[in-house]
Amino acid sequence: MEMVKVTIDGREVQVPKNSTILAAARAAGIEVPTLCYNEDLDVKGMCRVCVVEVEGSRTLQTACSQPVSDGMVVHTNSPRVRQARRVNVELLLSNHPQDCLGCVRNQRCELQTLADQLGIRELRFPRQVKSEQKDISTPALVRDPSKCILCRRCVEVCHQVQGVGALYPVNRGFDTTIAPAGGVDLGDVACVQCGQCSLVCPVGAIYEQDHTERVWAALANPDKHVVVQTAPAIRVSIGEEMGLEPGEVTTGQLVAALRRLGFDRVFDTDFSADLTIIEEGHELLKRLENGETMPMITSCSPGWIKYIEHFYPDLLPHLSTCKSPQQMFGALAKTYYAEKAGIDPANIYVVSIMPCTAKKFECGRPEMIDSGYPDVDAVLTTRELGRMLRENGIKFSELPEEEYDAPLGISTGAGVIFGATGGVMEAALRTVYEVVTGETLPSLDFTAVRGLEGIKEAEVDLKGKKVKVAVTHGLGNARKLLDLIKAGKADYQFIEIMCCPGGCIGGGGQPIPTTKEIRQKRIDAIYRADAGMPLRKSHENPAVQTLYKEFLGEPLGEKSHELLHTQYTKREKYPEKAADM
Amino acid sequence: MPVKSSTEPKKSLRQVIAEHNSDPGALLDILRDAQEIHGYLSAAVMEEIADELDIPVSRVYGVATFYTLLATKPKGEHIIRVCESPPCHIRGAVNILETLKEVLGVNPGETTEDKKFTLELTSCLGVCGVAPAMMIGDQVYGNLTPERVKEILKTYA
């Protein structure tokens, strides 16, 4: 690699040619303040906060976008730089609402942190706050354009990473706003509600619809039997909300914390993840036997489901008919569990802790009432649970480790790995292999389907019958596979698709920040949690076995069909109401 | 806008897009041609462009709303663009705008009831020497006074 020599604030540093000034400064141990810059995205030069002085250059340069050249001399803290940086931040603040105390991102806001870091105590510019209405049209997300600083991270993630493109800069100059096409609300366009935008927003301009108040109300209602389920990815991310480093497995503390909040039963979505494997595994085998639509694609991820419904409705027959683990859990909590515990399902209130904003949309889908009630009543993201725990003064890291309640809290390592990309596939292969071959797997680890690579493939030999599988995450990657299927060029039998990069550990409801590096740490934690489980194959889950014996009968049976399987809806790509934009 | 001779048949939007090989890089050219064909960029037109170029319609709409010469709403027969750049501002563009608002009875961005005029603001027209200035259609008018504006409007009656 060709190296160049650069002098930054008097320090000489060698960096690869084409490095940005920002990267060179970091290599020299010098931190240039940034705002719109995000290490995982291509956003550059929007906020002008990272301006630096380059000798010989007439104007200041944005460190995040300007490449270095050999012999370049840079000053990151000259009076001119400091003056410009402050003015740029003051200008951003001049049309920002500044209601920090009541903002969802208070003390977790990049603009607030920056203003503090730069020591801005006085605002010299007249205030001119945009008076745009909040957009509460979706069940998952709230947009507050008045707080938007136009950094375009959400646009980048929506277009480049997810390939959805629900948001884009509209109008020009002071009138610029980040919005859906045609001046309609987010709920009127093909937004999949994955919430990746809320994950990268530096301020409080996009965030999840709040369900904490309704959960507090249910917990305080003596007539309600409130049960909670925790998604696989929560145990490796909630710690970050409570001040721990990324990558810690805090399953026991999570259970203890939920008991202290007052939940009557603490159950685990891992249980219904195991159940999903049994149903979906048998569905795959049935499809293989009967020569039905191939490849079969997983259906756990509600953002992915909404995506295919809007953008590839012709491919809906490829989806497994299995409900997601969240919805299987809800349907069973208000039937099987209600019966077993002798509680009127009308009085059971089901709360999910999910790494996901789209789960809020999923639980409100009109078909998700197979128990006779809304199968899931409230969905809290990891961030909302963090807020509830902090409000309750729970000292998370000091809690003793506690166990989930039986029976819906009993699970295996196969359920845990649902939280990472490739996990559903690996869990399914562990079970399908043993069901088909009747032999015990020599090694449980299908490492080919693990990790952050965009599209992963593997071939499994089921005693002579070869099954080719693919795994992808992030809808931009999913699109490539879907186009292959459309063109008849996909020779896979089974595909796992997760909406969010990294799978659920990188979901739109996860702690902020969620970077590529943090995603990898959470993935590592997921596989550590799996390795530490006494049982690691879904079909060995004793509670699931009992469930079939006592209640469901057999996989894909009548009861399963009624409670655990679903159908999908073709959706339009464009809103009908936008006759004229 | 350039006047087309009546013998030259209008191309279809599909033809225009095909000529650009469905290249998203040609979005701006395609939008300009689409506006010429349809008068303005309706939702249906923008959706068709998005589908043909295989890009999100939000991007099409974003570009269409960025440029003042592109319209996402139907416009009047004549589009009046009043320059709001500093040289025109100093030479009294505000009075010109007030006169137009008064005579036409519309605000910037609006179209008169008889669909004859649409009033708009524009950045520099490049004729600062004769500020304040405006355009009606592709005709530039300079050295404007409120009186002269009224006279000019009469010629479009």
How does the SSE layout of this entry go?
The complex is a heterodimer of chains A (581) and B (157).
Chain A: E1 3-8, E2 11-16, H1 21-27, E3 51-54, E4 61-62, E5 72-75, H2 79-94, H3 110-117, E6 141-143, H4 153-161, E7 168-170, E8 177-179, H5 196-200, E9 206-208, H6 212-220, E10 225-230, H7 238-241, H8 251-261, E11 265-268, H9 269-290, E12 296-297, H10 302-311, H11 325-341, E13 348-354, H12 358-363, E14 378-381, H13 382-391, H14 413-416, H15 423-437, E15 455-462, E16 465-473, H16 475-486, E17 494-498, H17 516-531, H18 542-552, H19 558-563
Parallel strand pairs in A: 1-5, 10-11, 10-13, 12-17, 13-14, 16-17
Antiparallel strand pairs in A: 1-2, 3-4, 3-5, 6-9, 7-8, 15-16
Chain B: H1 13-19, H2 27-38, H3 43-53, H4 57-66, E1 78-83, H5 86-90, H6 93-104, E2 117-122, E3 134-136, E4 139-141, H7 146-155
Parallel strand pairs in B: 1-2
Antiparallel strand pairs in B: 1-3, 3-4
Can I get a quick summary?
Chain A is of the alpha/beta class and 581 residues long.
Describe this structure in words.
The complex is a heterodimer of chains A (581) and B (157). By secondary structure, chain A is α/β, with parallel strands linked by helices. Chain A folds into two domains: 3-93, Ubiquitin-like (UB roll); 212-563, Rossmann fold (3-Layer(aba) Sandwich), CATH 3.40.50.1780. Chain A is built from 19 helices and 17 strands. In chain A, strand 13 (348-354), helix 12 (358-363) and strand 14 form a beta-alpha-beta unit. Chain B is an alpha+beta fold. Chain B has two domains: 13-66; 78-155, Glutaredoxin, CATH 3.40.30. Chain B is built from seven helices and four strands; from the N terminus they run H-H-H-H-E-H-H-E-E-E-H. Chain B has helices spanning 13-19, 27-38, 43-53, 57-66, 86-90, 93-104, 146-155; strands at 78-83, 117-122, 134-136, 139-141. In chain B, strands 2-1-3-4 form a four-stranded mixed β-sheet, covered by helices on one side. The longest helix of chain B has 12 residues, at 27-38. The two termini of chain B are 19 Å apart. At the A-B interface, strand 7 of A face helix 3 and helix 4 of B.
